[in-house]
Specification:
mainly alpha; single chain
């Protein structure tokens, strides 16, 4: 009996660790995109901090870039079941909008990722305004 437990226990633990909290593949992909977008926003904030410290951007341009990031973050919504990421430095809704299908949530996250990527593309070393 001990041998059975010795074999079953690691399997139970492993299966518990690999269990997805997402009810559909659409939500799993939406969460991946959400986390990617949030990570990119954090990188952009760090870049703006560096540019600010170096005095590489005029104050009004820096304010415009920070406002662009803030406007993006204001629209950010959480994907149901996406509990394994940091919210540090980001104020966004932790609930999904009501009556949103899984496919719609995926579309929302795709759009948000495209928007933050567009901000990144515009924030080039030689450009000073969003």
């Amino acid at each position: 009996m001990r041998k059975v437990y010795a074999v079953l226990l690691p399997i139970v633990i492993w299966s518990g660790c690999t269990h997805s909290t997402f009810s559909t593949p659409e939500l799993e992909e939406a969460a991946r995109l959400h986390n990617q977008a949030v990570a990119l926003a954090e990188q952009l904030e760090e870049r703006l901090d560096s540019l600010s410290e170096a005095g590489s951007l005029p104050a009004d341009s820096l304010t415009a870039w920070r406002n662009a990031l803030a406007a993006w973050a204001e629209d950010l919504v959480e994907v149901p079941g996406n509990y394994n990421h940091s919210h540090e430095g980001h104020d966004h809704q932790h609930e999904s909008p009501p009556d949103v299908t899984d496919a719609q949530m995926l579309e929302i996250q795709q759009l948000l990722l495209k928007r933050i990527q567009a901000i990144e593309a515009r924030l080039q070393p030689n450009q000073q305004t969003p």
